[in-house]
Amino acid sequence: MMIYAAYFALGCYGLAMLMNLWKVATADHIGDRILALDTMVINAIALLVLYGLAYGTEVYFEAVLIIAMLGFVSTVAYARYLLRGNIIE
Amino acid sequence: MASLSEFLISALLVISGIFGFVGSFGLIKLRDSMSRLHAPTKATTVGVGAVLIASMIHAAAFEDYPSFHELLITLFLVLTAPVTAFFIAKVHIHRHETPQSMPQPGEDRVWATHDTDEGEQIGGDKEGKAGADREGDREGDRPGTP
Description:
The complex is a heterodimer.
Chain A: H1 2-26, H2 30-55, H3 61-84
Helix pairs in contact in A: 1-2, 2-3
Chain B: H1 2-29, H2 33-38, H3 40-62, H4 69-96, H5 117-123, H6 128-141
């Protein structure tokens, strides 16, 4: 039962990643593009944790931590560049 | 015991998948830019949170050792999600709003995002020179600035 629930969640997050990719490609404002990229990072975190859970491995947690940190930093850097014209003043 | 934890993990995974799907569907479905900011927070909190709780239960019930990495990821996401949303909202105000289209900022003169020389030019109000002076004072107050 558990493995089917994991497959269901993997499918849901895969569809969510596709919708985010569509939004990144066709967004009409750049703020929406930043938001879609940030949501892609969140969905990538959930997909990696799900993969580790479904296949019983622990090696993806470091990757998840690194993606969480770098996703936050890249989102803030992108928004900061649009706001101020440079990132570190 | 194992069947109970299996049932819990399955329920959490299904809830997480539905919330992650709904969050990204709202991203392409909602009409306004600030409404779209609201949708993916569901995927951040409930979606990723339920997956991480399921992973903790899985490690405790099937792998014979408790796992606490997930709390670290949850803490990091909960700490960083408001900062990200705040910056995206600031980008929206910076690029798509003028000081005239915003509501009154209370006791301040303009909103902080518009409190630059470019914002004054976009707004076109008379107090651009005063804003430039305030900006200069703030630069002077900062310690260590040459």
